[in-house]
Amino acid sequence: MLKGFFNVPPAVNEPVLNYGPRSVERAALKAALEAARSQQVDIPMYIGADEVRTGNLKELRPPHDHKHLLGTFHFGDKSHVNAAIDAALAAKADWENLPWEQRAAIFLKAADLVAGPYRATINAATMLGQSKNAYQAEIDAACEFVDFLRFNVQYMTEIYQQQPPVSGKGIWNRVEQRPLEGFVFALTPFNFTAIAGNLPASAAMMGNVVVWKPADTQVYAANVIMQIFKEAGVPPGVINLIYADGPEVGEVVFNHPDFAGIHFTGSTGVFQNIWQTIGTNIHKYKTYPRIVGETGGKDFVLAHPSANADVVAVALLRGAFEYQGQKCSAASRAYIPASLWPAVKEHMVREMATFKMGPTEDFENFINAVISEVSFDKLAKYIDDAKADDSVELIAGGNYDKSQGWFIEPTVIKVDDPFYVTMCTELFGPVLSVYVYEDDQFEQIMDTIDKTSIYALTGSIISQDRYAIAQATQRLRNAAGNFYVNDKPTGAVVGQQPFGGARGSGTNDKAGSMINLLRWVSPRTIKETFDPPKDYRYPFLQKEL
Ligand SMILES: NC(=O)c1ccc[n+]([C@@H]2O[C@H](COP(=O)([O-])OP(=O)(O)OC[C@H]3O[C@@H](n4cnc5c(N)ncnc54)[C@H](O)[C@@H]3O)[C@@H](O)[C@H]2O)c1
Ligand SMILES: N[C@@H](CCC=O)C(=O)O
């Protein structure tokens, strides 16, 4: 066995490629898209060393082209959840006893595979399966995924290096970071390929074994992630990928005595149900499970009267509509001073008329489809209700069409009531609600922002007045876990802006940071005494002479 204090290559952010006309990366991506469209994949579950095919097939179709079949995946049931847990527990001893540098090597290799030979494949899968355009796929499936893997390896070494600062005379104090006893359950959302890969990988990196269930609408790219993990050398059973009905999986996982933790990203309601179930079952577990959940948002942009109207408009155009507003961080409520509104509105309406909407394979399309018919119908209903409401003014968009794909036109509505339903509820789509406040009501509007929704994920202040920036930073300190000054509220970068919100937005364990990795270990303190006493009597017990 190798012995040494090893350093890992310092993590740096993966450069974002630009996919401009005639670029090498654009050609590679176009070829990968064509290859993916020209075949139908048959996607198994991965349990232990086995690829499991049940014959209970579910179809995968691009959200922007629902007549095209990308392939099918094999849906499982409770027996497969149990099999995945058994496979994880069987792999546990070997995996947790593997020297940490070997685990590090596997995930560093996975990062290089994503950055290199799999880049076009994983981006193409994300573009087709989740309807992200080339740039949105690149910053997610390629760059953020690579960053998660490389930075987490570095944080892992930093965690292992943290040792008690003092060892008294004749004593050596040490801290060991044990993997959790049992298995970790990774439950991942549809909207970020990087998050889907990171939730199982971060727990596994720290020596845990994992059962991973992605969203049905993300299975197409999840399958590529699993191929990368396998090629990188993740041993069988360490990460088991299953597809089954969420509540059915939950019933098995949350009743299992070896359930040691959940790594969740998704909606607030689902997470709150999970937490409640875990609480009810707490006596069934061998250890108190770690509960990590990053959840929904109702993210705000606050413009101060001193703000530049173009900066505000661009923060909203990008923040609200990139990836069709399906980012937990998406700007979905804006507070604009009356003096600035005409210029902001003019800029937005003018530019939104230039948005092209359509399939991801046409690189001119800035806007693509929303993820599913369920999401489409929900968004269409909110738009219809808003159009029918006298207190709401339609500023832009408002149309939708499901004939080819789940297309919702980017929509801006202006509301008279700052607590109108679309100001409070997470819609998860390209609908931005704007409230125009009187210029002298800046302080009052911050109180309104703070109490409008249950969430506290991201938010922005846009201002050229430093006093206003300072005031908003202080007053809104609990309204967002990621706060932006003169920027849009989306696009956090691993290693630069650790990501996560509080209140109804999650446990704020900051994905892609040391804070998150600490949730997947259980420290053991070891005290060694070199010359232990051989008589129980302390000096004070001796008789005074
Ligand atoms: N805070 C963050 O970092 C962050 C990041 C990405 C997405 N999100 C949030 O995720 C949501 C969008 O993703 P989504 O639609 O995939 O979320 P979702 O909650 O519908 O699904 C998340 C996962 O939970 C599973 N699931 C759903 N219902 C379940 C149940 N009753 N029991 C067990 N499992 C169940 C799904 O199959 C999926 O794998 C939004 O609310 C968004 O804000 C948050
Ligand atoms: N981390 C991403 C959002 C992830 C949630 O969907 C961002 O900062 O935009």
TrEMBL record:
Catalytic activity annotation: L-glutamate 5-semialdehyde + NAD(+) + H2O = L-glutamate + NADH + 2 H(+)
Gene3D superfamilies to which the protein is assigned, alphabetical: Aldehyde Dehydrogenase, Chain A, domain 1, Aldehyde Dehydrogenase, Chain A, domain 2
Keyword list, A-Z: NAD, Oxidoreductase, Proline metabolism
Stored CDD domains: ALDH_F4-17_P5CDH
NAD recorded as keyword: yes
Molecular-function GO terms, alphabetical: L-glutamate gamma-semialdehyde dehydrogenase activity; proline dehydrogenase activity
Enzyme class: oxidoreductase
Domain of life: Bacteria
Pathway: Amino-acid degradation; L-proline degradation into L-glutamate; L-glutamate from L-proline: step 2/2
Record PROSITE patterns: ALDEHYDE_DEHYDR_CYS
Enzyme Commission number, as recorded: 1.2.1.88
GO terms of biological process kind: L-proline catabolic process to L-glutamate
UniProt cross-references to InterPro entries, sorted A to Z: Ald_DH/histidinol_DH, Ald_DH_C, Ald_DH_CS_CYS, Ald_DH_N, Aldehyde_DH_dom, P5CDH/ALDH4A1, Proline_metab_enzyme
Sequence similarity: Belongs to the aldehyde dehydrogenase family.
Descriptive protein name: L-glutamate gamma-semialdehyde dehydrogenase
Taxonomic lineage: Bacteria, Pseudomonadati, Bacteroidota, Sphingobacteriia, Sphingobacteriales
Gene: pruA
